[in-house]
């Protein structure tokens, strides 16, 4: 779990991503690409069935996840939900 957490924070704070966000208008396309990148990387390193959601503003949610594989954190003005669903 620590490895997953470390990778998530590393990907989100990548110098390249930070530089891009500072030099360009951050738009929905950029966050769409970030979600796709994070999901692909999690699926590749930790198996399929990962979900990545980036939220701007309020939200209410109810979902199931595999025990120990649910991460929720705030970075700048975005809320990140990252979780793995159980393999049924």
Summarize the structure in words.
This protein is α+β, with helices and mostly antiparallel strands. It has a single domain, classed as Protein Inhibitor Of Neuronal Nitric Oxide Synthase, CATH 3.30.740. Helices cover 44% and strands 22% of the residues. The protein contains three helices and three strands, in the order H-H-H-E-E-E. The chain has helices at residues 2-12, 15-23, 28-46, and strands at residues 50-55, 70-75, 78-84. It has a three-stranded antiparallel β-sheet with strand order 1-3-2, covered by helices on one side. Strand 2 (70-75) and strand 3 (78-84) form a beta hairpin. The model has no long low-confidence stretch (mean pLDDT 81).
From the alpha carbons, calculate the radius of gyration and give it in angstroms: 13 Å
Q: How many H/I helices? A: 3
**CATH 2nd-level architecture:** 2-Layer Sandwich
Instruction: Tell me about the largest β-sheet.
Output: 3 strands, antiparallel
Query: What is the CATH class designation?
Result: Alpha Beta
Mean pLDDT: 81
Shape: globular
Which percent range fits the helix content?
40-55%
- SSE string, helices as H and strands as E: HHHEEE
> Could you give the count of β-strands?
3
- How far apart the termini lie comes to 21 Å
* Broad structural category: alpha+beta
> Any idea what the CATH superfamily is called?
Protein Inhibitor Of Neuronal Nitric Oxide Synthase
Taken as a percent bin, the fraction of beta residues is: 15-25%
Strand order of the largest sheet: 1-3-2
CATH topology: Protein Inhibitor Of Neuronal Nitric Oxide Synthase
Total domain modules: 1
């Amino acid at each position: 779990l620590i490895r997953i957490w470390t990778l998530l924070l590393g990907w989100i704070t990548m110098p390249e991503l930070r530089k891009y966000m500072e030099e360009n208008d951050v738009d929905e396309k950029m966050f769409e690409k970030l979600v796709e990148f994070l999901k692909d990387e999690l699926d590749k390193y930790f198996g399929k069935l990962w979900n990545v959601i980036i939220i701007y503003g309020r939200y209410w949610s109810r979902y199931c996840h595999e025990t120990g594989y649910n991460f929720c954190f705030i970075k700048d003005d975005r809320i990140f939900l990252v979780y793995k669903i159980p393999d049924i």
